[in-house]
Please model this.
Amino acid sequence: MMMFVALFSGVLFGLGLAVSGMVDPARVIGFLDVAGVWDPSLMFVMVGALGVFTPGYFLLVKPRLCSLSGCAFQFSNQKIIDRRLVGGAALFGLGWGMAGICPGPALSLLASGEPRILLFVLCMGIGLFLVDKVLLPLRWLRHA
Model:
């Protein structure tokens, strides 16, 4: 049952991204281009999403100790803004600004079959693999 809920949630999220135009790289780049011809339409999408999410979070999620599946919520105890966090955020922002695509919309756009999207998702997967298999193990070596 939980797999069905997860699938339904993912499909609903992807449809929301598609209907709102957040999967259109040209629209995203237009939104990020505040010095040029700025397109504020995605700001309304984000404000609308926050307007729906925020009450739900404070009323339904935050008071709970565990998820509906029974798993405990896992929150980071990292409170320090370090080089890795800033570097990762900068890399994400640069990639988003250059391509006009971030991970959620990229997965939604896979259905288009466009070669650039397939290449983007492949590179994203390689990056995730490298961080998991190369960078994270090295971090533990430095602290030993």
Observations:
- The mean pLDDT is 85.
